[in-house]
Each structure stands twice: as C-alpha cells, then as structure tokens.
Recover the amino acids of this structure.
C-alpha cells in the first residue's frame, strides 16, 4: 500500500488535478490496520502509509482515496499485474533498490 501511494502520486502528477482514486487491497488485515491512527509497537509501516496519504491529500478537498478489499485481485484491470508483482517480490525477485521509494528500500 505504501508503494501504491507512490504510484498514485505519480498518476496525480501526470494527470493533474484533484481526483478520487480507488486502491484494491487483497488483505483485509492491512485495510483494518489503516483505520487506526494510534501508534503501537510494530506499526511503523502503517504510520508511514498515513504520512504518505496525508502528503498525497493534504486537505479534504484535494481528492479522495477509496481502499477496497479485492479477493485476489481477480478481474480488476491492473491488479492482475500487481498480484504477479507481489508474488515475484515474495520469491525474492525484487526491484532495483534505486527505483523504490525510500520508505520501502
């Protein structure tokens, strides 16, 4: 989800303007974790996601991100590729470090 916010940032920059965007996430636990703004041990990635979202949408009128649970990314354009990339990362086939946002290096 952190990497997705970087991709959304690029998309907003290329297309310009305020937007409503949707993000399909295959983990219900990850979605639930985004709903808490309380700092807890081990929640540094959730805190990073919140920081990224606040910078992406600094005020309420700057756009909207809808986070939806999607069962295995089935039938959603673009998410099939995201699912494959996640599987590659799980196998250790990662991107070049210099291509990744600093928060996920």
């Amino acid at each position: 989800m952190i990497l997705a916010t970087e991709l959304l940032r690029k998309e907003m920059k290329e297309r310009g303007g305020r937007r409503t965007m949707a993000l399909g996430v295959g983990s219900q636990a990850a979605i639930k974790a985004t709903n808490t703004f309380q700092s807890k041990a081990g929640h540094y990635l959730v805190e990073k996601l919140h920081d990224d979202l606040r910078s992406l949408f600094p005020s309420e009128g700057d756009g909207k991100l809808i986070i939806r649970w999607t069962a295995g990314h089935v039938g959603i354009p673009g998410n099939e590729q995201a699912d494959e990339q996640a599987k590659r990362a799980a196998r250790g086939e990662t991107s070049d470090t210099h291509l990744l946002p600093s928060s996920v290096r």
